[in-house]
Amino acid sequence: MRLNKTTIFLLCLVILLGCKPRKSEQSQIKLATESKNDISGSFTISGAYALYPLVKKWCDDFMNIHPSVKIIVTKGGTGLGIDDLQAKKNQLAMISRPLTDEEQTEGIWVVPVAKEGVAPIVNLRNPYLKRILARGINPEKLIKLYTHSETMTWGELLDTTSKEKAIVYTRGDESGAAVVWANFLWKESTDLKGTKVVGDEEMIKSIQGNQFAIGYCNFAYAFDSITGERIKDIQVMPIDLDFDKNIDKKEIPFTNINKAHRGLWLGYYPKNLTRELTFGSLGKPTDPAILAFLNYILTTGQADVASSGLCELNDVYIKNALNTLR
Question: 295-301 long-range contacts, Cβ below 8 Å, gap at least 24?
């Protein structure tokens, strides 16, 4: 049987397409063919609780690809990470808030690696939950709750006669979440009052343990990283942004992590309750191992961001971030 030129071309095209690896397979091939001995060295990372679980995974995966690289990562809050950086105790700081003017003048270089939001949270078993979800609490009352020395009742917060006191929790460490929450309330993190806890995990346990508790945490800790649904006994609290004592469509709290991330990128969530999560160093890094690690987390490593509960960067962010490494 004779084949014309068109038929032969189509047969060749089918064969070529059939042999071309899919995108996921191409990534695996790239990793498999990378030299495991082309990079060596060691460096230390410390800082934000919000970034720690994801960064720990990035470090483990990167060291599996490059066994000659050793990375030590510890958590202790953004403030500690920056202090360590300035004292030259680490080479990279995990940062979950904007740099202060002073920190910028000290030559701290930053690159974004993910995005995150801060959410007010209450106990799911709060007896006034139905009213909380219907009316929310306006910023004015939240300012009073978090800055006045006198304890407020849930009745004062929700305009009822309830006498139960609101048990307020805030962060006792130098956390980016506390800075973001305080800025939303037009305050400094040092102005915030309440029982102090260290880290998001302790905050979650504290809210879970008292039905009258109220606090705040990073999105990633309010929702389960595997299922995407909210953590047991935790409810993201709506904020009555327009002071009308009614929670409208734009103020309804997110029910799962995917909706939270979508709301963050589309601007449904207050911009001053969201921020970039970054790595910082004293000046732009020159260590080949650090540059390779940063390149890894902005490419292959971005696949791990959403599964960790954080919000991944979009293509524009990634392109600009990679350009800063060159």
Answer: 295/322, 295/325, 296/58, 296/62, 296/65, 297/58, 297/62, 297/113, 298/111, 298/113, 298/322, 298/325, 300/27, 300/31, 301/58, 301/61, 301/62
